[in-house]
Design a protein that fits this description.
The structure holds two protein chains of two kinds. Chain A is α+β, with helices and mostly antiparallel strands. Chain A has six helices and eight strands, in the order ααββββααββββαα. In chain A, the strands form two sheets. A four-stranded antiparallel β-sheet of chain A has the order 1-2-3-4. In chain A, strands 5-6-7-8 form a four-stranded antiparallel β-sheet, with helices on one face. In chain A, a hairpin with a 2-residue loop joins strand 2 and strand 3. In chain B, a hairpin with a 4-residue loop joins strand 2 and strand 3. Chain B is globular, with a radius of gyration of 26 Å. Chain B is an alpha+beta fold. Chain B has twelve helices and ten strands. Classes of the chains: A alpha+beta, B alpha+beta. The interface between A and B is medium-sized, with 30 and 24 residues.
Chain lengths: 296, 344
């Protein structure tokens, strides 16, 4: 035991020291390890967080890109047209339809108790007045009120067609109104543009279906007074059915031909256009007199 | 120049307000521009009229020109007279080729064949209105220029507007001449009278209330946003709006034709509590109700919005323009006749 005693005294303590040191080291290592592990876990969590954030941002970016592409009308996104776009298209096509009706002259709009018709008149490219009719459909088809002039035979036309064939009614009425507007337009044009050639006033009536006027016709340096009497017996026609042209008794016989020509012109062309043609014919006549054909 | 003519011209000029005399004389066109320029308008109307007569003397005015001046005066101031509306009827449906020259000839011939002593003058206006002035005499006396009737007729229409101040006995003669000259068969007086000639035309030609629903709606007049205190609340706003809407439906949007009277002759039974026994005999209680106003239809239109009557107004009042009458006879409702019990 003595050997062991002497032996272990140096060895045991040293051994213990050694063990202690070892334990200490192990403990340290353990601690370190634990710290490391903690750190790792922490870092791992952070990584998770960052990954999630990255995914979020990515998704956002994608969405924005999608939207941008949509606005640019990309082919890559054939989506449903929005309700707003559909509505706008509908309004546009209805407006175009209404414009079409306006151009045909007869249009209508539903009202609370029936329909409001609008008959637009025009003559040779010029829009003239529009006339309206408020038609009730209950208890029976009747005209509640209208802006048709009193001298147009509206009641007559209504009696014939309103109950049975409303389209015909509108068509016949439109013919009457258009013809009246055309006749009035021609008479107004005559008074405005050829006032210098007319002598006295133009005699007309409400329907402009009988016109009487006097105008000068030059011939051989003198001017002769012609009297025109235009009758428009057809209420739906804008050209006269009869054109009676007479000259003063002292007019030369040759003018009878001119009168016949004028009568013809009035029956074929619009009043102001016929007058235009007279002026032109007279001009060429004058030119022929001044420089007879064949001369230099 | 005839004394009668001179005096007539003088009196006609006196009727014109001083500022308008030049305009009227110009329209007349009988005096030249230099003559018109010579008139001193700063003097009294008496003196002005004397001057005008003097100038007319220089131009030897006769009754024809004086009559035209009178027509022009009445055309510019038609509301000084009471106008009645007459309606003509014809059976044929052929288009009427109205010839003014022919009309004048026929009218004169018809009238003068019955009564020689008349002065007849015509004047046509831009709106196709024909004015006729007739000065009446008797079979034994010359026409009295102060006893005149005026007729306004738009060609190819069945309505004639007549102002007969005196001598109602000549009316049948006048009506006959009109019917013959305009190629109609019959004429009757409508129960429509007023001072305002244009309003009468508006009513029979149906020229009033012409606001139609078009596809291009007129901009709704934005009610001026007054500086109303926001703290003030209108309690009956919806009721007011309802009244406005109903009023609009009945009267339309535009200005109403101008009438001065509406007369209702009642021949209905007096309805009273039988215990009160006011009338012993069961016979119609005759009563005349007359509404008068400077502008009757406008005032009727404003009755409900002003709170003086309940909406809707009685159809007896609101039917005036549509029925084209302002003189009514109301008899007892018979049997099961609904609504209108007005007899023409």
């Amino acid at each position: 035991m003595e050997e062991r005693k002497a032996y272990s005294r140096d060895g045991v303590l040293a051994h213990l020291e050694m063990l202690e040191a070892q334990a200490h080291e192990l403990a340290l290592k353990q601690e370190e390890k634990e710290q490391q592990e903690e750190k790792l876990a922490g870092l791992k969590a952070r990584v998770q967080e960052l990954r999630a954030r990255r995914d979020e941002l990515r998704a956002k970016l994608e969405l924005q890109q999608k939207r941008l592409l949509e606005k640019g009308g990309a082919e890559t996104h054939p989506e449903q047209p929005s309700a707003r776009a559909v509505l706008e298209w509908k309004i546009k096509s209805v407006k175009a339809l209404l414009q079409l009706f306006y151009l045909t002259g007869i249009s209508g709009k539903l009202t609370k108790r029936g329909v409001c018709f609008c008959i637009s008149t025009a003559y040779e490219g010029t829009y003239l007045e529009s006339y309206y009719l408020d038609v009730l459909t209950k208890p029976e088809v009747q005209i509640q009120r209208h802006s048709v002039p009193i001298f147009i035979p509206l009641e007559q036309i209504a009696k014939k067609y309103l109950q049975t064939d409303i389209r015909r009614f509108l068509s016949v009425l439109s013919d009457h109104l258009n013809a009246y507007a055309a006749r009035r337009y021609q008479a107004d044009q005559l008074q405005e543009r050829f006032s210098d050639r007319l002598e006295g006033t133009l005699q007309r009536n409400s329907l402009c279906n009988l016109l009487v006027f006097h105008y000068n016709v030059p011939s051989d340096g003198r001017s002769f007074l012609f009297t025109a009497r235009l009758l428009y017996a057809d209420p739906c026609c804008s050209l006269p059915t009869e054109a009676i042209i007479s000259c003063t008794p002292d007019a030369p016989a040759a003018l009878a031909e001119v009168a016949a020509a004028h009568s013809d012109a009035f029956r074929r062309a619009a009043l102001h256009k016929a007058f235009d043609s007279f002026s032109k014919a007279e001009e060429t006549q004058d030119e022929a007199l001044i420089s007879p054909p064949g001369s230099p | 120049m005839d004394e009668v003519v001179a005096e007539y011209i003088r009196r006609t000029v006196l009727k014109i307000p001083r500022d308008e005399i030049m305009g009227v004389l110009r329209k007349w066109g009988f005096l030249s521009e230099t003559q018109l320029g010579a008139i001193n308008f700063r003097q009294t109307k008496d003196s002005i009229s004397q001057e005008v007569v003097q100038l007319c003397e220089e131009n030897s005015a006769d009754i024809k020109q004086a009559a035209i001046l009178d027509i022009i005066y009445n055309n510019i101031y038609p509301n000084k007279r009471v106008w009645s509306v007459y309606q003509m009827k014809k059976t044929g449906e052929e288009t009427d080729l109205f010839d003014f020259t022919n009309f004048k000839k026929k009218f004169k011939r018809r009238l003068q064949s019955a009564l020689k002593n008349v002065t007849i003058s015509f004047r046509e206006y831009e709106d196709n209105a024909i004015w006729i002035r007739i000065a009446w005499g008797t079979p034994y006396t010359k026409p009295n220029q102060y006893k005149t009737s005026y007729v306004v007729y738009h060609s190819q229409t069945p309505y004639v507007f007549i102002s007969v101040s005196v001598l109602k006995s000549n009316l049948p003669l006048l009506c006959q001449a009109l019917v013959v000259a305009s190629n109609y068969h019959d004429i009757r007086e409508m129960e429509l009278r007023s001072h305002c000639l244009n309003s009468l035309k508006d009513i029979v030609f149906k020229r009033y209330s012409q606001n139609f629903q078009t596809h291009y709606p007129k901009q709704e007049k934005n009610v001026a946003t007054e500086n109303v205190d926001v703290r003030i609340i209108q309690e009956d706003k919806s009721e007011k709006e309802r009244i406005q809407r109903v009023n609009r439906e009945v009267f339309g949007d535009g200005p109403q034709p101008k009438l001065e009277f509406a007369q209702y002759k009642l021949e209905t039974m007096f309805k009273s509590d039988p215990k009160m026994d006011v009338l012993e005999k069961r016979e119609p209680f005759r009563c005349l109700v007359k509404f008068s106003s400077p502008d009757l239809l406008e005032s009727l239109k404003s009755l409900v919005p002003a709170g003086m009557a309940d909406a809707p107004l009685s159809p007896l009042l609101t039917c005036i323009p549509q029925k084209a009458r302002n003189y009514f006879k109301i008899r007892e409702r018979k049997g099961v006749l609904p609504g209108s019990f007005v007899r023409p």
